[in-house]
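Re: the request from the purification team.
They wanted to know what the chain is likely to look like in 3D before they choose a buffer screen. I agreed to run a prediction and write the result into the notebook, where they can find it.
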Amino acid sequence: MNQVNPDVSRLHAGEQLRSAREAAGLELADVATRLKMPVRVVRSLEEEDWSRLGAPVFVRGQLRSYARLLGIDAEPVIDAAEVAPVAPPQLTPRTFTPPLQRFAEQAARRLVYVVMTVAIAIPVWLGLSGRQHQEQVAYDAAPLDAPAASDRQPASEPRDRGAAEPRPLVASLAPMPQRAAPALSLRFEGDSWLQVFDADGKVLEQALVKAGEKRSYDADEAASVVLGNGAAVEVRTQGKARDLSPYMRANVARFTVSSDGSLAPAAD
């Protein structure tokens, strides 16, 4: 691979890349194919249109990959680009519920369930008890010479006493259903840049996540995800592990998440 003339290093980053590419006899499409990038991304690097390339950490990585492909030193290119260095992100803490508060909420839900069951059962029990009392009073007040009910029925048709007797009401105290697995969960086995967007394109989270950390999102919360080091992140939807290779470009995974947990490539 041809080396760039030392004077070229004083050019802007895009001009350095363009000069090195032309000296190597490569077209934009050739570079895009070798780097597995869209042609528009390669053009944006040469035009220094950083706004179309995402976070600074992505821009620096793409500049480094482009320079390595052309056989030139990446540091002068990155310095000329004046892209902000990777800094510790300002993490926005997610809502955290203390264990004691979660226990109190679960106990309150169970108590409401029991109270509602009792509130339904007591009126039914009182109604049945009152009916039995009225039947007993009517029986005691009947004339002594009145024939018994069993005497008025034919012998071949015995009285069905079970039909007149009330059935006991059994209140179900089944355990509350367990919470389903998160719609989307991420487990980071290595450091990776993370961007999560909702269905309206609003950024839910943007951070440099350290190895060993985890993230989870409820259904319809996360609609689009970008992982800067996709090979080091385990992605699960509805508790099922997902393969990111169809959505990976230069170790950057971009995908959307549907309501049923399926993944699809995100638009460039």
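For the purification team: The CA atoms of residues 137 and 143 lie 12 Å apart.
Please add any questions underneath this entry.
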